[in-house]
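hey can u check if this looks right to u? its 215 residues, i copy pasted from the old doc so theres a chance i mangled smth
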Amino acid sequence: MNYKEYKDINKVKQAKKILNRVHTELRNYTRKNKVRFGLELMGSGKNGVILTPKNVENQGNILFDLDFQIMITRWATEDEWKEKFWIVKDKLVKLFEKEGFTLSNEHTRCYKFYPKNKNDSTFCFSFETVFTVYHKKTRKKFEVIRKDDDSLIREEEKQTVKPITYKKLKLINRNNLRPDLVENYIKKRESDNERPHYQSFVMSVNEVCDHEPAK
């Protein structure tokens, strides 16, 4: 699939405001149920490279999705993290429904929320949620995988790309990304659409910054 840079910053801000409202209500709810979690943006939303397919005739008004991760922490047993997961997930569904979105019936690795009315021009985005669980004592992190029968399994995360160093991160202005970085990122998305957005971004930063002249 071919991509181009997404320009409508106001729509991106609108999506982030909805997610912030959901996050606030979810945090207040989980505190009462003694569940600890963290929420952060992932991929293009986090790094300021919002992309949209060039050909969207068959996709209604949905031009991009805002990816985010929910990490559930401080659990001891498998039964405990599963119990906490369902508390968070069920409430998340209700909060997105309140905002006009519904959970997709597709059983993929993640949980995706689409506008209830895909022809509603109010929304040109959806939300994609990745759940992870982090065991504080062992420091092991697992991704929650959604199976066809809606049961859960966990898969240990693996670092598959070289991390961005702090020195390289200082070269990036996320509010005004350099054209060569955006171009490199788009090429990676076009060549391998299955690669996670974040990996594509990290690889692009490393490639571009490694060619920076020494100062």
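The longest strand covers residues 125-135.
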